[in-house]
Design goal:
alpha/beta; 17 helices; 3 domains; 470 residues; TIM Barrel; elongated; Pyruvate Kinase, Chain: A, domain 1; M1 Pyruvate Kinase, Domain 3
């Protein structure tokens, strides 16, 4: 009967496209799907989105969907012959130009990048396989030394971990994709390569309240401003792919812990992503290290863990979801997990809503309640209760379908669309009907209900009620 608290996100792709496979993934434990706008045509995303909504309708449970924008991926330009061999200690010239590079000249179609570089800056090429250090700069060119050599091919990625590049997190392509994703009706927009709080503000001006914004943290410059970025976003993602290129490998686990703590402190859902069960792209079982990686994210208090290639193009997408579900449940059955959660508990503010949420958790502990039912129009009440990490989990009852879908990313919340109520008697009756339908109670169990009176008005959480299931 105990529901899993940490949520599972799966990336859509050819391996998860068949309708019967999609339904199996949801039944195996997926709560939210990711549409990766770095790959695939818009028609592919539209088809996948429609398929998710059909499975949602058929299974009768809310399913979240977010669009992951590609972002300003910086790449080297074209190279004469398609590639260049770089040797240790070799001096090369970096030049802002759309022309082909040749000889020891590497051309970058990003003048803002070249203009921002200073002596001592490090450039990592091709996912960190090659590394350059800037030695000196001129008016339009930069001289750099090869630290890690190898073969550099045309249009390979460039990461600059030592400097914030004055490039918007939203490219022209992203703005078109964002408008299309909002037209589809996605629940969140994931913003790639966030460097500064202004990136979130820019996206908010375009998105408004039509979707939540997920800030993907994959740049060291974002870590320096993490608290402000998290405060402005609706959710956060520890995007360990590019973060692992920009940071030394030993720093990535530390950064992950810092991001999760910042999100917990601000009461924002946090997703840990990338390379979680990567061996399962081919293999039927994960490595022990991968199982430990998922478990670590859960122990640290993550709201969700994410599958990327495992569910998009892997050979065993359903098995990957099922194994991730088993790992999460094993951690949540460990008493040490619950002992560690209070360390990062969000300090309550001096508001009625926070006082009610804190009281609900204490009541569930004292009375060993089976559930907390939170009536919520915008999702904020359920989010407040989830921040307190009650052992019994949270049922989010809302008359708004979009709210129910957004809550699929929030730790411990089982969301359900339910008609609004007009009095306390209806509130209790509707709450009992919901917890029975979800299968989270037995006869004799106590349930805590929190809501706002007068009913139907957002932001008025001021009432707490306890009842016993008859």
């Amino acid at each position: 009967m105990r529901a899993r608290d940490c949520k599972i996100v799966a990336t859509m792709g050819p391996a998860s496209d068949p309708p019967e496979r999609l339904a199996m993934l949801v039944e195996a434990g997926v709560n939210c799907f990711r549409l990766n706008f770095s790959h695939g045509a818009r028609e592919d995303h539209a088809r996948r989105f429609a398929a998710i909504r059909e499975v949602e309708r058929r299974l009768g449970k809310p399913i979240g969907v977010f669009a992951d924008l590609q972002g300003p991926k910086i790449r080297v330009g074209m190279i004469a012959g398609g590639e260049i061999k770089l040797g240790y200690g070799q001096m090369v010239t970096l030049e802002a130009s759309p022309e082909q590079g040749e000889g020891d000249v590497i051309r970058l179609p990003h003048p803002e990048l070249v203009a921002a570089l200073e002596a001592g800056d490090i450039l990592k090429l091709d996912d960190g396989k090659l590394q350059l250090t800037v030695i000196e700069r001129g008016a339009r060119q930069v001289k750099a030394r090869v630290d890690f050599g190898g073969v550099l091919k045309s249009q390979k990625g460039v990461n600059v971990p030592t400097r914030r590049i004055p490039i918007s997190a939203l490219t022209d392509k992203d703005k078109l994709d964002l408008a299309y994703a909002l037209e589809l009706g996605v629940d969140y927009i994931a913003l790639s390569f966030v460097q500064h709080p202004d990136d979130i503000r820019e996206a908010r001006a375009l998105v408004g309240d039509r979707a939540g914004i997920i800030a993907k943290i994959e740049k060291p410059s974002a870590l320096e401003l993490i608290d402000e970025i998290v405060e402005l976003a609706d959710a956060v993602m520890v995007a360990r792919g590019d973060l692992g290129v920009e940071l030394p490998p030993e720093q990535v686990p530390i950064a992950q812990r810092k991001i999760i703590r910042a999100a917990r402190a601000a009461g924002r859902p946090v997703i840990v992503a990338t390379h979680m069960l990567e061996s399962m792209v081919e293999a039927a079982t994960p490595t022990r290290a991968e199982a430990s990686d998922v478990a670590t994210a859960v122990y640290q208090g993550a709201d969700a863990v994410m599958l990327s290639a495992e569910s998009a193009v892997g050979r065993h997408p359903q098995s990957a979801v099922a194994i991730m579900d088993r790992i999460i449940r094993a951690v949540e059955a460990d008493s040490e997990y619950w002992a560690g959660l209070p360390r990062d508990m969000t300090p309550p503010q001096a508001t009625t809503a926070d006082a009610i949420a804190l009281s609900a958790r204490h009541i569930t502990d004292v009375l060993d309640c089976a559930a907390v039912v939170a009536y919520t129009a915008t999702g904020s009440t359920a989010l407040r209760v989830a921040r307190e990490r009650p052992r019994c989990g949270v049922v989010g009852l809302t008359p708004v379908t979009e709210t129910a879908r957004r809550l699929t990313l929030v730790w411990g919340v089982k969301s359900m669309v339910s008609p609004d109520v007009s009095n306390v008697e209806e509130m209790v009756a509707s709450a009992e009907e919901a917890v029975r339908a979800l299968g989270v109670v037995e006869t004799g169990d106590r349930v805590v209900v929190i809501a706002g009176i007068p009913f139907g008005r957002a932001g008025k959480t001021n009432t707490i009620r306890i009842f016993r299931v008859e």
